[in-house]
Amino acid sequence: VSANEYRFRPTLFIGIGGLGALALRQLRRRLVDRFDHLDRVPALEMLLLDTDVKALAHASRADDPAAFKPRETISLPLRRCQDYREDSEKFLHWLSRRWLYNIPRSQQTEGMRPLGRLALVDQADQVVGKIRQAVIAITDAAALAASRQTTGLEILDQFPRVVLVASISG
Fold first, then answer.
1. Cα 43 vs. chain centroid, distance in angstroms?
2. 46 near 68, Cβ under 8 Å?
3. Contact predicate 163/107, CB 8 Å
């Protein structure tokens, strides 16, 4: 395939949890190696979601050229189990009572998928808002033009692609 046959499409990469962070950081490093700075390709955007604040801080380390910016990370903290009591009806139709009322004292999911789902659903408005902002940003005419100039690739179309990176466990 010759270079003039490649096409570009605005893309949002969403990483969830540890595996999502690992995969997106590797992709970021490759993109930074190729384009010097990811800001030069504004039609590519990344969001990292995690319940672990330490993992988000690690992914955002300033000494790493491929570090995530704070606007690209979304913390999904669990609340204390007593904080869910008022809203329990909206969770108990899909989540067992034992999960809702046995949240670890650490308020971390500790690798338990149902608690990760609870954190995601509990913060859904924030997540959807960030995704919506990112899609608007990557499909903006100026972002497409800047990305075309940086990559030298033609834009396939303005309809964004969303790539979700997550583990099937934990």
1. 15
2. yes
3. no
Q: How many C-beta atoms surround the C-beta of residue 77 within 10 A?
A: 14
Taking only the tens place, the pLDDT of each residue in 24-71 is 999 999 998 988 888 899 999 999 999 988 889 989 887 887 889 989
**Rounded Cα distance, 11 and 7, in Å:** 12
Which token pair is 82? 């007593």
In degrees rounded to 5, what are phi and psi of residue 13?
A: -100, 125
| Cβ contacts of 67 within 8 Å, gap of 6 or more | 59, 60, 61
Who's near 49: CB < 8 A, 6+ residues apart? Answer: 14, 15, 16, 17, 20, 73, 74, 76, 120, 127
3-state secondary structure of 73: strand
Q: Distances from the Cα of 112 to the Cαs of 4, 23, 34, 97, in angstroms? A: 47, 21, 37, 15
Q: How would you class 81 by CB atoms within 10 Å of its CB: exposed for 0-12, middle for 13-18, buried for 19 or more?
A: middle
Residue where the block lists tokens 């990370």: 73
